[in-house]
C-alpha cells in the first residue's frame, strides 16, 4: 500500500531538489513549495496508509472494531501544511521585494550583503 | 483486539489521563512560553504606542527572567519536571519536560533577551517599534524557551518555526536593500533546514509510532541494533538539519551573509540565541535519544567541528567589517560546541565533554550578544563599522575600551574570563579521548581569534584616528557629530550586565561547571528524564 506513494514522495523530492539548485529565485521558490509538499506526504506515508476507515468508535463500545486510519499523521501534516504555507507566502513576498530592490533574481548576482570585491582588512600595524 | 466493552461499565479515566492536580510550582514549566505568547500579543496590541511598547516588553521580559529563575531553582531542587498538556498520560499528550540543561539555557537566553530589550530602547527608532520590534522579540523568546523546555519532537519543530518566523520579522525590520538581500539567504536556507528536521521527525514516527523524546529514548535503547541503517539515516538527517540551524561547516554560509544586515540589537539577539538553539537540539537528539548513532557518527562530527572551527577563525581574520567578523566568530564557537559532541565513548568522558559544550553554549550566548552590542557602541562613537574608518576609541571612552577588551579576551578563550573554562574542559576531554586533533583545532582557532580581536583592538581603539591619520597623532573622528557622543544608561546597563556575567563565570566558574555537569549527566544517563515522564516503573 505504501510503495506507490513512497515512490511519489521520492519523485517530489527529486523535483524540488532540482528546482532549488537553480540560479533563479523564482524556481527556488517553486522548489521550496514542492519540498514542503514532499515532506508532508512523507509524514503521511510514514503513518501507514489504510483504506478510508474513519477512527470513529461505534456507539456503546470503548475501542474501534477494526483497524482504522491513523489520525495522528493527519494532525501533524495539517500543522506542517499551515506552517509551510505561511512561510512560503512570506518568502514569496520577500523574494519579490528583494527582486525590486536588488534588480535581479539571479542569486549569483545578489551580492549586496556580501560585495564581491570587498576590501581585505588593513595590513600591517 | 480485546472484546468490545459496553459503556455501561464505569469508564476508568485514570487509564488515559493524569487526574492528580498539577502542583502549583509545576506551572512554572509552561510559564516562559505563556509569558512569551501573552506578552507578544499585548505588545502587538500596543504597536502604535511607541513610548508604551518598551515598558510593556521590559515588564514581560523581566517576568520571563523571574519565571526562568524559579523554574531552574525548582528543577535543581526536585529533579526533572514533566507536565503533559491536557493531562493525557504520556506518550499520548504533548509533554513539556524540563531538565537542568533546558532550564539553564532558557534562563540565560531570557537574561540576554532582557538586555537586548533594554539596548533596543536607544537603538530601535520609532519606525522600528511601530513595525513590531518588541512584539517580535517577545514572541521570539517564547519560541526559544519552548524549544528548550519541550519534551516532544514535533512540538520542538513547532517552537523552531515560532522562533524562525519571529526572526524573519526582526531581520527585515527596516526594509533596506542589504537587509532584503541577506534575508533571502537566511530565509531560504533556514526553511530548508527545518524541512530536513521534519523529514527526520516523520521517519521517527514511522519507525517508533511515538514522538515523545523519553519514549523514543527507551525504545531505541531496547533495540538489538541501536544504530541500524534506518536510525543512522534519521540521525544524519537531524545532524544536517541542526548543523544548518547552528551554522556549522559546510552549511554555514547563510550566517555571514545575513547577520550583519539588520539593526545591531537584532544581530546581537540572533548571534546569542538562534544558533545555540540548534546546538541544544543536537545535544538533545544525538545524546539523549540516539547515543549509539552519535558514537557511530563521532568521526564525522569531529571532522565537521574542526572544519567549522577553522572556517570561523579564518573567516574572522579576513573581515574588516566588525559585524561580519563577529558573525564568523559565532561560527567558530559553534565548532567548539560540536567538538564536545564528538568526544567520548565511555559515559564518563562523554559527560565531561558534553558539560564543556553546555558551558561553552552559555558563554557564547552571553559574549556574542555583548560583542554585537559593543560593535553598535563602536559605530555610535566612531561612526563606522569598518576597521578602516575606526580609530581613537580608547581616547574617546576609556571605560568602554576596557569593557571591550574584557569581551575580546573572553571570546578568544583567554583567562580569567568565561571563555577559558569551557575550552579547558573540552580540550582536556579531547586529549583524554585520544582525539588530539580536535583539541589542537580548538586551541588553534582560539589563537586565530585572539589575532582577529587583537587587530580590532589595535585599529579601532589604540591608533589615534581612522585610516590616514598621521602616526603618533590623535584626531577626533571624521564624522563630526559623533565626537563627544555620550553613551546612555540603556546602553551601559545591558552591556554591563552581560560583561559582569562574563567576568563572574570566569572568576567563579564552579557554579556553572557544576550546573553544566548536571545537565550533561541528565543527557548521558536518561533515567531521570524518562522517570519524570513515565513515573517510577
Structure description:
The complex is a heterodimer of chains A (125) and B (537). By secondary structure, chain A is mainly α. Chain A has one domain: Orthogonal Bundle (Helix Hairpins), CATH 1.10.287. The longest helix of chain A has 32 residues. Chain B has 537 residues and is mostly helical. In chain B, α11 packs parallel to α14. The model of chain B has no long low-confidence stretch (mean pLDDT 90). Classes of the chains: A mainly alpha (125), B mainly alpha (537). At the A-B interface, α2 and α3 of A face α6, α7, α10 and α19 of B. Chain A: It is a multi-pass membrane protein. Chain A: Keywords: Cell membrane, Membrane, Transmembrane, Transmembrane helix. Chain A: It is found in: Cell membrane.
Structural class of chain A: mainly alpha
Beginning-to-end CA distance, first to last residue of chain A: 70 Å
Spatially, the strands of the biggest sheet of chain B line up as: 1-2
**Number of separate helices of chain A:** 3
Report how far the terminal alpha carbons of chain B are from each other. 25 Å
Protein name (chain A): Multisubunit sodium/proton antiporter, MrpC subunit
Transmembrane segments (chain A): 6-21, 28-45, 75-96
Keywords (chain A): Cell membrane, Membrane, Transmembrane, Transmembrane helix
InterPro entries (chain A): CPA3_antiporter_subunitC, NUOK/Mnh_C1-like
Amino acid at each position: 500500500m505504501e510503495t506507490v506513494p513512497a515512490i511519489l514522495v521520492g519523485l517530489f523530492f527529486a523535483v524540488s531538489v532540482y528546482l532549488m539548485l537553480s540560479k533563479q529565485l523564482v524556481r527556488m521558490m517553486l522548489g521550496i513549495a514542492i519540498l514542503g509538499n514532499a515532506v508532508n506526504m512523507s509524514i503521511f506515508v510514514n503513518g501507514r496508509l489504510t483504506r478510508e476507515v474513519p477512527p470513529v468508535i461505534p456507539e456503546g463500545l470503548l475501542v474501534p472494531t477494526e483497524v482504522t486510519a491513523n489520525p495522528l499523521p493527519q494532525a501533524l501534516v495539517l500543522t506542517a501544511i499551515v506552517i509551510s504555507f505561511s512561510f512560503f507566502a512570506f518568502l514569496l513576498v520577500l523574494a519579490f521585494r528583494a527582486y525590486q530592490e536588488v534588480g535581479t533574481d539571479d542569486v549569483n548576482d545578489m551580492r549586496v550583503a556580501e560585495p564581491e570585491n570587498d576590501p581585505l582588512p588593513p595590513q600591517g600595524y | 483486539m480485546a472484546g468490545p466493552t459496553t459503556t455501561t461499565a464505569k469508564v476508568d479515566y485514570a487509564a488515559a489521563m493524569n487526574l492528580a492536580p498539577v502542583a502549583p510550582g509545576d506551572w512554572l514549566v509552561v510559564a516562559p512560553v505563556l509569558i512569551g505568547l501573552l506578552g507578544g500579543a499585548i505588545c502587538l496590541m500596543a504597536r502604535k504606542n511607541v513610548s508604551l511598547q518598551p515598558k510593556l516588553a521590559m515588564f514581560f521580559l523581566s517576568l520571563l527572567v523571574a519565571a526562568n529563575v524559579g523554574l531552574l531553582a525548582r528543577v535543581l531542587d526536585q529533579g526533572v519536571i514533566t507536565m503533559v498538556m491536557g493531562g493525557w498520560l504520556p506518550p499520548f499528550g504533548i509533554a513539556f519536560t524540563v531538565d537542568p540543561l533546558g532550564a539553564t539555557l532558557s534562563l540565560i537566553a531570557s537574561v540576554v533577551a532582557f538586555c537586548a530589550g533594554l539596548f533596543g530602547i536607544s537603538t530601535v527608532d520609532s519606525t522600528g517599534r511601530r513595525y513590531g520590534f518588541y512584539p517580535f522579540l517577545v514572541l521570539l523568546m517564547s519560541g526559544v524557551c519552548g524549544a528548550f523546555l519541550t519534551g516532544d519532537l514535533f512540538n520542538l519543530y513547532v517552537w523552531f518555526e515560532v522562533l524562525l518566523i519571529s526572526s524573519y520579522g526582526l531581520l527585515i525590520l527596516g526594509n533596506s536593500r542589504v537587509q532584503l538581500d541577506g534575508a533571502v539567504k537566511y530565509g531560504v536556507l533556514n526553511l530548508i533546514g527545518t524541512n530536513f528536521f521534519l523529514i527526520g521527525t516523520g521517519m521517527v514516527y514511522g519507525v517508533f509510532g511515538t514522538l515523545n523524546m523519553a519514549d523514543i529514548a527507551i525504545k531505541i535503547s531496547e533495540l538489538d541494533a541501536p544504530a541500524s541503517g534506518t536510525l543512522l539515516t534519521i540521525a544524519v538527517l537531524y545532524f544536517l538539519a541542526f548543523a544548518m540551524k547552528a551554522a556549522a561547516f559546510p552549511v554555514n554560509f547563510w550566517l555571514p551573509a545575513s547577520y550583519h544586515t539588520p539593526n545591531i540589537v537584532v544581530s546581537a539577539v540572533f548571534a546569542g540565541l538562534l544558533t545555540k538553539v540548534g546546538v541544544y537540539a543536537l545535544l538533545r537528539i544525538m545524546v539523549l535519544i540516539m547515543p549509539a548513532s552519535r558514537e557511530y557518527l563521532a568521526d564525522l562530527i569531529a571532522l565537521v567541528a574542526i572544519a567549522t572551527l577553522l572556517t570561523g577563525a579564518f573567516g574572522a581574520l579576513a573581515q574588516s567589517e566588525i559585524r561580519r567578523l563577529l558573525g564568523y566568530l559565532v561560527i567558530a564557537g559553534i565548532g567548539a560546541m560540536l567538538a564536545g559532541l564528538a568526544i567520548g565513548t565511555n559515559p564518563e568522558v562523554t559527560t565531561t565533554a558534553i558539560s564543556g559544550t553546555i558551558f561553552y553554549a552559555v558563554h557564547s550566548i552571553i559574549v556574542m550578544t555583548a560583542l554585537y552590542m559593543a560593535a553598535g557602541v563602536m559605530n555610535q562613537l566612531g561612526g563606522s563599522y569598518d576597521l578602516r574608518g575606526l580609530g581613537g576609541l580608547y581616547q574617546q571612552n576609556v571605560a568602554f575600551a576596557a569593557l571591550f577588551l574584557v569581551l575580546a579576551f573572553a571570546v578568544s578563550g583567554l583567562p580569567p574570563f568565561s571563555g577559558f573554562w569551557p575550552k579547558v574542559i573540552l580540550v582536556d576531554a579531547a586529549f583524554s579521548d585520544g582525539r588530539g586533533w580536535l583539541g589542537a583545532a580548538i586551541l588553534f582557532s582560539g589563537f586565530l581569534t585572539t589575532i582577529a580581536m587583537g587587530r580590532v583592538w589595535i585599529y579601532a581603539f589604540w591608533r589615534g584616528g581612522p585610516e590616514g591619520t598621521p602616526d603618533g597623532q590623535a584626531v577626533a573622528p571624521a564624522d563630526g557629530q559623533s565626537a563627544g557622543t555620550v553613551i546612555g544608561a540603556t546602553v551601559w546597563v545591558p552591556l554591563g550586565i552581560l560583561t559582569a556575567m562574563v567576568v563572574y563565570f570566569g572568576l567563579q566558574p564552579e557554579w556553572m561547571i557544576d550546573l553544566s555537569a548536571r545537565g550533561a549527566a541528565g543527557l548521558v544517563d536518561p533515567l531521570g528524564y524518562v522517570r519524570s515522564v513515565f513515573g517510577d516503573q
